[in-house]
Amino acid sequence: MLLTLIRRYSKPYMPYIVAVVVFQLASTIAALYLPSLNAQIIDEGVSRGDTDFIWRTGSVMLLVAIVQVGTAIAGVYYGSKTAMAVGRDLRRGVFRKVTSFSAKDVNRFGAPTLITRGTNDVQQVQMLVLMGLNFMVATPIMCIGGIIMALREDISLSWLVWVSVPVLFVVVGYLVVRLMPLFRSMQKKIDRINAVLREQIIGIRVVRAFVREPYETDRFGVANKDLTDVSLKIGALFVLMFPAIGMILHLSTAAVLWFGGQRVDSGEMQVGSLTAFLQYLLQILMAVMMGTFMAMMIPRASVCGDRIGEVLDVEPSIHDPERPETPATVAGVVEYRNVTFAYPGAETPVLSNVSFTARPGETVAIIGSTGAGKTSLLALLPRLYDIAEGEVLLDGVSVSNLDRAEITKRVALVPQRPYLFSGTIEHNLRFGKTEATDQELWDALQIAQGGDFVREKKNGLNARIAQGGTNVSGGQRQRLCIARALITKPKVYLFDDSFSALDVATDARLRAALKQTTADATVIIVAQRISTITDADQILVLDNGRIVDRGTHEELLETSPTYQEIVESQLSVEEMA
Ligand code: TTP
Ligand code: MG
Q1: Which residues have beta carbons under 5 A from ligand 2 (an ion)?
Q2: What is the pLDDT of residues 368-419, one digit of tens each?
Q3: I want to staple 445 with a disulfide (CB 3.0 to 4.6 A). Which of 104, 208, 284, 450 is the partner?
Q4: What is the pTM of this model?
Q5: What is the distance in A from the centroid of ligand 1 to the CA of 336?
Q6: Closest residue by Cα to residue 288 from 127, 178, 168, 175
Q7: Which long-range contacts does 57-65 make (Cβ < 8 Å, 24+ apart)?
Q8: Computed from CA positions of residues 555, 559, 564, 566, in that sequence, does the dihedral angle turn out positive or negative?
Q9: How far apart are CA 22 and CA 142, in angstroms?
Q10: Taken in order 82, 88, 92, 94, is the CA torsion positive or negative?
Q11: Which ligand lies nearest to the CA atom of residue 344 in the structure?
């Protein structure tokens, strides 16, 4: 999974990768050459007092050193460029995919983990690509080349290489194996922290209102402690790792000096060879260490790669039809034909056998107790969910055979939980129609009874809106959402309890103004207040996902016990007031 991902996303950067390989190769070979030049200077130059030789070899050495540094820098530069580009593209891939998700797909993962996958997980993969590009070429060459060069300097000390390299490998390998499961669990704990934090920040007002801070603090505390514990365990192993590596390096150095020193004493080896041998041994050990470090990153990054891949591989459960149909008319006739719908994973349907028709110029109202399925019913028209049985038709074509763009052109939904995006009022209003003129915006606001409060704002249309629209009141948010829907001038309006946060007078004014604008449109209103819907052409009484009664206000007053109950309950409330 990780490999497929990396391969797919690094393809456009092949030239960079080739550059990295070339530069790394050059820099490694130069690095391997340096100790041997050094040895020549000491053994052939200094010991013979040959100044000429020292100068000549010295300048070669300087040149090689410059090449080594230059190519190393270039290698790291292109490596970083590639890794960052891969990270950027992966993030973009995850983002694009998630935007194409239906509500069902998002629920399958949950928002927090989608966020972690698009950020932290991508970063882990990016890190591996960076490390991989920086060390992939250098490490094996340094290791093998180092061994060859060391043996060339002195073959009888070679046993030191055969002892120290495996010892280092075993020690670092052991620690890495212990670290891997910890890294894996760390990723889950980060998910958990994100989930808790997100929920608490979004629900902060509720937490305050119910004085749940201590409980929530505890809940976060547990998640935080979990993460801390894992990080501490990882830290403990790292604490072991560095002294262990240091000790092996120092012991090897001591051993080289001890045994090599004896050989120098007996004249079997020259001092320059000894220093060169020492440098090679250290280079080899460093390479082994880096290789193991990298090996350590692979499992963690591959966990992350899998998690990212899971998101990228999702085929969105709702997508545009392959051969979309185009309705003959753009009228806005809505028809539900024997619709039965259940939420994914739910056992019982929330809507059973719902049928009704709403024509242009008509207002259809839906009323029913909470949980009756009103919101669910509206969600089927813009195809937020696909239905199990029956058909939802728009201008005579089933919505599953329409391009979603075609649907949005005709249908505007004012959701029950009005949501605004961070930005300005203007930016939110233009959401459905970017080219709308300022006059259009003001007209829509006027109808939605939001003109006054926007005018009162210091910046008017440019007033800031916080994320989710939390810096305007519930009623103001509803009015802005209504205005946003009006601006698109759709054929079908869906108002899901959109007047609930308005006082009775504003509600009446709004409906009067709406009536003119929506005169030729199809309007489906979900409402709680009977007064909102008395003049509807047709009222559907929804109970437990079924339409139990239908008719006008007057008809229902006579025939529908359920409707009468609702009316009575509201009358008595009003009488009390
Ligand atoms: P809704 O359709 O949301 O009920 P409603 O709009 O009539 O209620 P209210 O007046 O309070 O706005 O929900 C019907 C049932 O569907 C309810 O039992 C909860 C369930 N449901 C889900 O399982 N998932 C969802 O995403 C939604 C919106 C509802
Ligand atoms: Mg609802």
Answers
A1: 374-375, 416
A2: 988 999 999 999 999 988 888 999 999 999 999 998 888 888 899 999 988 8
A3: 450
A4: 0.76
A5: 18
A6: 168
A7: 61/34, 61/37, 64/30, 64/33, 64/34, 64/37, 65/30, 65/34
A8: negative
A9: 15
A10: positive
A11: 1
Nearest in space to 264 (alpha carbons), one of 153, 344, 109, 121: 153
Q: Considering the domain 334-576 in this protein, what is its CATH number?
A: 3.40.50.300
pLDDT values of the chain reduced to their tens digit, one per residue, 577 residues: 788 888 888 888 999 999 999 999 999 999 999 999 998 898 888 878 888 889 999 999 999 999 999 999 999 999 999 999 999 999 999 999 999 898 888 888 888 889 889 998 999 999 999 999 888 888 888 889 988 988 888 888 888 888 988 898 888 888 888 887 888 788 788 888 888 888 888 888 888 888 888 888 899 999 999 999 999 999 998 888 888 888 998 999 999 899 999 998 998 888 888 888 899 888 888 888 888 778 778 877 888 899 899 999 998 888 888 888 888 888 889 999 999 999 988 889 999 999 999 999 999 999 998 899 999 999 999 998 888 899 999 999 999 999 888 888 889 999 998 889 999 999 999 988 888 899 999 999 999 998 888 898 888 889 999 888 888 888 899 999 999 999 988 999 999 998 888 888 888 888 889 888 888 999 999 988 888 888 899 999 999 999 999 999 999 999 999 899 888 888 766 555 5
What is the torsional sign of CA 22, 27, 28, 32? positive
Pocket test for ligand 1, best of 350, 416, 419 (most atoms within 8 A of CB): 350
How many Å apart are CA 412 and CA 424, to the nearest integer?
Answer: 21
Residue tagged 């185009």 (tokens): 326
At residue 577, the 3 state secondary structure works out as: coil
Ligand 1 atom with the smallest distance to the CA of 376 is 2
- 525 C-alpha vs ligand 2 centroid, how far in Å? 11
Residue nearest to atom 1 of ligand 1 (CA): 373
Equal CATH topology for 2-312 and 334-576: no
Mutate to test the pocket of ligand 1, among 341, 374, 548 (most ligand atoms within 8 A of CB): 374
Residues having CB closer than 6 A to ligand 1 are: 343, 346, 350, 368, 370-376, 416, 497
Q: How far apart are the first and last CA of the chain?
A: 65
Nearest atom in ligand 1 to 372's CA:
7
Instruction: Quote the CA–CA distance of 10 and 104 in Å, as a whole number.
Output: 31
CATH superfamily of this structure's domain 2-312: ABC transporter type 1, transmembrane domain (1.20.1560.10)
For residues 4 and 112, what is the distance between their CA atoms, to the nearest angstrom?
Answer: 25
Give the position, in ligand 1's atom list, of the atom nearest the Cα of 416: 12
User: Which residue ranges make up each domain of the chain?
Assistant: 2-312, 334-576
Name the helix (H) or strand (E) containing 52.
helix 51-99
Instruction: Give the chain's largest Cα–Cα span.
Output: 121
Nearest alpha carbon, ligand 1 atom 27:
376
**Distance, CA 209 to ligand 1 centroid (Å)?**
24
b/e per residue, 43-72, with b = 16+ CB within 10 A? bebeeeeeeeebeebeeebeebeebbeebb
